[in-house]
Amino acid sequence: MRDIPSPRTGIIVAIDGPSGAGKSTVARLLAERLGYVYIDTGAMYRAVALSVKRASIAPEDEVALEELCRGLEISFERDSGGYRVLVNGEDVSEAIRTPEISQLTSRISTRKAVRDVLLHEQRRMGRSGNVVLEGRDIGSVVFPDADVKFFLSASAEERGKRRFLELREKGEDVTVESTIAEVAARDARDEQREIAPLRMAKDALLVDSTGVSIPDVVARMEIIVRAKETERAGTVPAGQGESR
Ligand code: DC
Hints:
Blueprint: E1 12-16, H1 23-34, E2 37-40, H2 41-54, H3 62-70, E3 74-79, E4 82-87, E5 90-91, H4 99-108, H5 112-126, E6 131-135, H6 138-142, E7 148-153, H7 156-169, H8 176-192, E8 205-208, H9 214-233
The chain binds 2'-deoxycytidine-5'-monophosphate (DC).
Residues 19, 41-43, 45-46, 105-106, 109, 135-137, 186, 190 line the site of 2'-deoxycytidine-5'-monophosphate.
């Protein structure tokens, strides 16, 4: 149940799915096409992980984690090259994308103290709508009443290869095998954790991006969201609305 009464006026789009399915790129492009705000909830968990590392807090120390999270102000800023992630005003966009922080993020995102604080924050950021939120539990937990829910996936091999290319481009010393194994380990942890595990919401639309180009995936999603906007505006003749 949502804990904040919503004065929602716009559409909420939820995009969930496992690592490396192309969620971030797809969600960002979709938000741009629609003129919506883009919220990368994975970046928020990563920002917490970076802060945990810097503060030398044990990932199991719930009390310290909660105190840390409450003192963090995480925000997003658009720039010409995309968007930046800020923690208490500091640009951490690059620092949160290392393999070490990926692994630590996967660990601290299982902690209730962290999830509670970020859940509240994500609801606050998205509640007025015209927003694309991307993560693992948006359609199932953060906004179970989202207007459109997508579950974006791709084969494990393809996801591992995509992640490998991304990391190599950034100069990371990784192999395809180690990256596929890292992606699989994170998937397993995300799917098996007790709180808000990665799971497709019952009313989500499954989009398989294996072998499909990013622009095609975005175009397909845009049609569905536009149909929802039209339906919401009440301009569709009876029987022609998009049903979910
Ligand atoms: O999407 P990403 O790879 O940036 O996510 C980083 C980690 O954060 C990943 O291990 C799963 C976790 N995460 C989560 O638990 N819930 C979310 N809503 C988003 C990400």
